Amino acid sequence: MRGAGRQQVDEEFERIRGACTRGAAPKGGSFPEWTRDGIESLEEFFDGTAHLWDARFGAGYEFLHAATADQIPSTDDAITILDVGCGTGLELEFIFERAPHARITCLDQAPRMLDEVRRKYADRRDQISLVEASCLDWPPGLSGFDFALSILCLHHFPPDTKPRIYSSIRGSLRDTGVYIEGDQMVLPEAEAEGLALFEAWIAKLPSGRLGAWNYDISLSVETTRRLLLDAGFSSCEQVYDDNDDGTNRHAVLVAR
Ligand SMILES: C[S@@+](CC[C@H](N)C(=O)[O-])C[C@H]1O[C@@H](n2cnc3c(N)ncnc32)[C@H](O)[C@@H]1O
Fold this sequence. Notes:
Layout: H1 6-19, E1 21-22, E2 39-40, H2 42-49, H3 53-57, H4 62-69, E3 80-84, H5 92-98, E4 103-108, H6 111-120, E5 128-132, E6 145-151, H7 162-172, E7 173-185, H8 188-200, H9 221-230, E8 236-241, E9 249-255
Parallel strand pairs: 3-4, 3-6, 4-5, 6-7
Antiparallel strand pairs: 1-2, 7-9, 8-9
S-adenosylmethionine binds near residues 87, 135 and 156.
């Protein structure tokens, strides 16, 4: 599909989305109408759409990729960075602008997302390591990073599953290491609504609590900060907010 027009990309994207959609909400509950169509298997969705990802989302999230990468100091040093849920590596170009000699370990469970990173950054082959793994099944040997970051990935996990991921991230950093999270967030009053739908529907699907479904569990900045501090970070500061007042808010948090 490379070089395809936007309409072709959108049509193919929707075809793939449809092919991996299942798990409709149980009948009889007071579920929103859209839940009747079901939800995509997350692994199938991301792996299946990897080749369309940049054409569909590349420009739309530059603001968040830039705001997250901006937390990394401009340096010529070969700093080490772990990117959790790297996708096609859209954020890497922003990171390399600030730290051209950075060594980045890209972790993602979708092999085709990693294929895109490999293809796009072939000229930086010696600076990038690819790790195909789930952040819930943390691979051994990821340690001593100067920075870890995660963009638009962790909103797929409920609050009781995130501590395990945050602890793994904390453990992969050196003592003075910094974790940067750029993600969808919601105002505290909207958080409960999303969680209630998750508990009534997604949590009851197979591996529902383990990020198996492409459902967005956007938490508030306050809840995210609490989870990060509980996981062993000693401080957590919000450094960016797009000030959207609805459910599609985006924020960047820095935890040390
Ligand atoms: C919305 S994409 C974001 C990708 C990239 N960070 C960006 O901002 O463009 C989310 C990515 O998280 C990955 N992901 C989801 N669950 C994961 C898990 N349990 N372990 C590792 N990666 C996961 C998906 O495969 C996908 O590539």
